[in-house]
Amino acid sequence: MPPSVSRLGRLADLPVLLVAVVWGSSYLAAKGVTTADTVLAVLVLRFGVVLPVLVAVGWRRLRALSGAQWRGAGLLGLILAGIFLLETYGVVHTSATNAGLIISLTMVFTPLAESRVRGVRLPGAFLAAAGLSVAGVALLTQGAGFTAPSGGDLLMLGAAVARTVHVLAMARMESVRGADALSLTTVQLGGAVAVFTVLVAVPGTGASPWAAAADFGAGDWVWLVYLSVFCTLFAFFVQMWAVRRTSPSRVSLLLGTEPVWAAAVGIALAGDRPGWLGLVGAVLVLVGTAWGRSVADKGRASAGEPPQATGTPRRHTPETSGTPGR
Which residues form the domain of 78? Predict the structure, then answer.
């Protein structure tokens, strides 16, 4: 590889690694600004800030989408709305560390589901890695002793399953194949925001966006802007930029460090204390997901397919998936 190409790849690594750090910290940010009564309001505000920017940047490409692509992206937006609802309600009721590590099971669930759909047998090494990850989550959710997982833990597990469904839907829906990534993201987010707006208008579903915004302090606005600008806009555009300047597998590897940063941020900044069982579980989750990802990517490489990027169902390369950030 020429030195100039190698240097370019290393330069592209830094912002991608920063995206992984930002995504890892997004669970703490969501906990900082969201309560059980303001989940829908925060989601409307968070993505209501992002959507006009995406529309303005990609207006011409949006107009070029076919009717089938609009419908397909809209359907994906409904799934995406479910993911964000599960994640946000989940993170309110569990720790930032647990949230970041449990959602990483998407990296294990996706190849498992894909193998069932395709009727392909996974190697024993992957099944062992999957078992290690599941055992890690079981330990992680016990804290200092063996108790039932919290409701938030179960919601995050549901979010990991929903992300897997989203990945498979994007991979198998003929209508969105070949669609521009920015346009696909914009329509999906638009569909998700429409769902949040309808739900928040239903009596008893929590505070309205206006009421929540009126009660926000300076710290709440900082967290909200961080989620909107960095965890969504910045993350998406960095992925699109990086995948054109380096390889999808390199981007995938760097984004795959997200669970490490989620655990580090949760323990160092949020004061999470998972106990010795939880720490063992966290290590098992990280080892299992990294091992499983490696085995799955080797299988794709042998089949001539590009590795998947975490976070771009999280996380189908960023250039083609059209999936927004956390």
Answer: 3-321
